[in-house]
From TrEMBL:
Keyword presence, Zinc: no
A Pfam short name: adh_short
UniProt protein name: Carbonyl reductase [NADPH] 3-like
UniProt entry tagged with the keyword Oxidoreductase: yes
Keywords from the UniProt entry: NADP, Oxidoreductase
Family stated for the protein in its record: Belongs to the short-chain dehydrogenases/reductases (SDR) family.
Gene3D superfamilies, per database record: NAD(P)-binding Rossmann-like Domain (3.40.50.720)
GO molecular function terms noted in the UniProt entry: carbonyl reductase (NADPH) activity
PANTHER family: CARBONYL REDUCTASE (NADPH), CARBONYL REDUCTASE 1-RELATED
Organism of derivation: Vanessa tameamea (Kamehameha butterfly)
Gene (UniProt): LOC113393922
């Protein structure tokens, strides 16, 4: 019955996550859970939506905190999830004062390792024929990894989650020894984290194909947000439009969808060139 359907959005107290929750309150026939690391900010976000006539539910969730993840799983108990949108993430801008290794460790922790661990913990609560949508980036396109050898390893259809985690840990080691450029990873922790996220998306989709669980990833565009200090080319509301379509009416699983709604080959040419018209 539709009233028992559940959608969960992580990192949703502001920006794109907030716009996604608003869109789901308008279009998803069921309960929509807005989650956030900071409880006060999350509850305030829910109140904002309630003033507009929507009825989101709230639950505190820090995907990097095992106890927080456990508490959400305990809360769900025998309930099943029909839609999970992994939106929580972090980006260090170029003028960040954090050390290179700290940026790499934090970016991979939040954008990859914590997301994977949270998703794996929540999988037992996913309904058959449900949907998981990971909010990615143009940075998640495989072409952003300079090394052909690494690209082949990451895109290997037989790659296991254990193998993928090992590769992400190797990247951290490369940064520790100041070898990330020499080893072919490039100079952006954000790129590596989002490439890892996309690779996980496809692994997960293969794993749960028989249960009809569709797992996709989307580049929503350069979204104006606090994370980008207001820089960007699309508003959170505009970016949420492509997210809504892929979340609510996915054609299939294992897709990487660009901000214009086109499905792009993850291991093909960089879509920033042939879709966005940017010199590469």
């Amino acid at each position: 019955m539709s009233e028992y359907k559940i959608a969960i959005v992580t990192g949703a107290n502001k920006g794109l996550g907030f716009a996604i929750v608003k869109g789901l309150c308008q279009n998803f026939k069921g309960s929509v859970y807005l989650t956030s690391r900071n409880e006060d900010r999350g509850k305030n976000a829910c109140q904002e939506l309630q003033k507009l006539g929507y009825t989101p539910q709230y639950y505190q969730l820090d995907v990097t905190d095992e106890k927080s993840v456990f508490n959400l799983c305990s809360f769900l108990k025998s309930r099943k999830i029909d839609l999970l949108i992994n939106n929580a993430g972090v980006l260090f801008l170029k003028d960040s004062k954090e050390s290179k290794i700290n940026q790499a460790e934090q970016t991979l922790l939040i954008n990859f390792f914590a997301l994977v661990n949270f998703t794996e913990a929540i999988l037992p609560f996913m309904n058959d024929h449900s949907t998981i949508l990971n909010i990615s980036s143009s940075s998640g396109h495989l072409s952003r990894i300079p090394s052909e050898k690494l690209r082949k390893e990451i895109s290997n259809p037989n790659l296991s989650l254990t193998d993928l985690k090992s590769l992400m840990k190797k990247y951290i080691d490369s940064v520790k020894f100041n070898r990330e450029i020499l080893d072919g990873w490039g100079d952006s922790p954000y790129v590596v984290s989002k490439v890892g996220l996309n690779a996980y998306t496809f692994i997960l989709n293969r794993r749960f194909k028989e249960r009809g669980i569709l797992v996709n990833c989307v580049h929503p565009g350069y979204v104006m947000s606090d994370m980008t200090r207001g820089a960007g080319t699309v508003s959170p509301e505009q970016a949420a439009e492509v997210v809504m379509k892929l979340a609510l009416t996915p054609e299939t699983g294992g897709l990487y969808v660009w901000h214009n709604g086109d499905t792009v080959p993850w291991d093909g040419p960089d879509p920033r060139g042939y879709i966005d018209g940017k010199p590469l």
